[in-house]
User: Fold this.
Amino acid sequence: MIPLAELHCHIEGAAPSDLVRELAHRNGQEINGLIDENGHYIWQDFDTFLGAYDRVASVFTRAEDYEALAHAYASDLAGQGAIYSETFASTDHAERSGVDAMAYLDALTDGVKRAEREHGIVSRIIPTGVRHFGTEAINRAADITIQAAKTNSFITGFGIAGSEVAGSLLDAKPAFARCGAAGLGLTAHAGEWTGPPTIRDALQLNVMRVGHGIRSADDPSLMAEIAERGITLEVCPQSNIVLKAVPSAAEHPAKTLLDAGIKLTANSDDPPHFATNLAKDVETMVSLLGGDETEIRAMLTRNALEAAFVDEQTRAKLIAKLDAAVDSA
Ligand code: ADE
Ligand code: ZN
Assistant:
């Protein structure tokens, strides 16, 4: 079996609804209208999804809640056959529910380390600013990330998520410059909803990866630039289909992007919100891209490992695992 690797999943977005119910009950918080009787999160569109995400995050009121969440998520991924995981982490959401940002990052780190000891899955944590929380919050998230990365080798990058219509990505340029100078990997959500100009803004942040980036398919010269610069797209096909960032699965532009020479990966984004997991997103990408299944699976994992924000020694070990699996496939 070809091992899996993931670069793009938001840890708060990965919280199962039964855990959220349990924590809300423990805290005495009301969560009316958040989860339906079948355990599905309730939202109607991207904005109401972002609102549901905030409410989910608000029940994680203790650092140890995040340790348990990170451990459960990485362990579940390992069970799906993953050898590597990067999760986005929002220090803003942690602080909003009363958890110190450093304690939050330490707790996530403890959780993924425990999963590595138990299941062998390697993980890294990528704090992200939230675009609709404003430039000051993004700067603060970046500074916390730089501070945390000085002593925590699991914090290896910085990203930005949130609403693509709030402000401009270029407002985050100083934050990204500081994180880049500190040696962190850089990624930005862009081109999930808005078109090529937002992705061009992301390129100005000197990112190595773009979160989603699917709308680059609207512009052949932009696709050529992304391919030329070797930028990897963190594609989240089930998220795009379920959130309706694409009109239908058949209209997802993954194959157009691949044919333009762009490096693609498959990712689950916020899995319980989109009734998905990494294994399902990889399957979806395989069907979108066509071709030899084993080769496509190996390509997706190789692209993820090559673009991972991880030290070279660890990357080499992970790629050797992939190579061994490919040889025996
Ligand atoms: N935060 C969590 N999921 C997101 C997504 N799909 N796009 C932007 N921000 C997000
Ligand atoms: Zn995302």
In short: The chain has a mean pLDDT of 98. The chain is about 50% helix and 15% strand. Residues 170 and 204 are 8 Å apart (CA to CA). The radius of gyration is 18 Å.
